[in-house]
């Protein structure tokens, strides 16, 4: 039986040039595990700085990619941590209890190819093997990618926190140990209002990939 799934294939940007790769990979593993647990999915790491995350919840695909990049960026110290992530959404017979290493369905292939062919200055891509091309979605994805590229560590941190916790600014301020006006300023710097609306739109569109058939 096939079902609609999302596959995120990625790698760390310039991992060989980073000083503290051990700390970086610890953050990567922790974030991937958290995302897999939250969405009943599965992740694996390969080739040192490569990774793959499969989710039986296609609607969450872009949000998961943004969460992962936000988690990396805000925890980088003297150097910027970030990743390239190729998303593919479509029908596949993969089940969450099955390992990813042997998965070779069209969605897995599309995600891997998306990463291999990603332009040097691009860090997000989306492929929908079972759907007609949608230039509008591609344009919005470019916007999200450019927005993330402009994040400071504080902007990434508040975005990461807001994505995981749908709370008031006062509650977020308590988590960070700062004042509410500072949270408001960081959310504005992160362009959270636009990002949140864009992610909600992607969630709605990707949810239309269809239920289990």
Descriptive labels:
single chain; 213 residues; alpha+beta; five-stranded mixed sheet; 8 helices; 5 strands; 49% helix; 16% strand
Structure description:
49% of the residues lie in helices and 16% in strands. It is of the alpha+beta class and 213 residues long. It has a five-stranded mixed beta sheet, sandwiched between helices. Helix 6 crosses helix 7 (180-189). The model has no long low-confidence stretch (mean pLDDT 91).
Q: In summary, what is this structure?
A:
With 213 residues, the chain is of the alpha+beta class. It has eight helices and five strands; from the N terminus they run βαββαβαβααααα.
User: What spatial form do the alpha-carbon principal axes imply?
Assistant: globular
What is the count of helical runs?
8
Please provide the ordered H/E string of secondary-structure elements.
EHEEHEHEHHHHH
Q: How do the strands of the widest beta sheet line up side by side?
A: 2-3-1-4-5
Residue share in helices?
40-55%
Look at the structure and give the mean pLDDT: 91
Structural class: alpha+beta
Distance between the termini: 7 Å
Low-confidence stretches: none
What proportion strand?
15-25%
Describe the oligomeric state of these chains in a short phrase.
Answer: single chain
Radius of gyration: 17 Å
The overall strand count is 5
Largest sheet: 5 strands, mixed
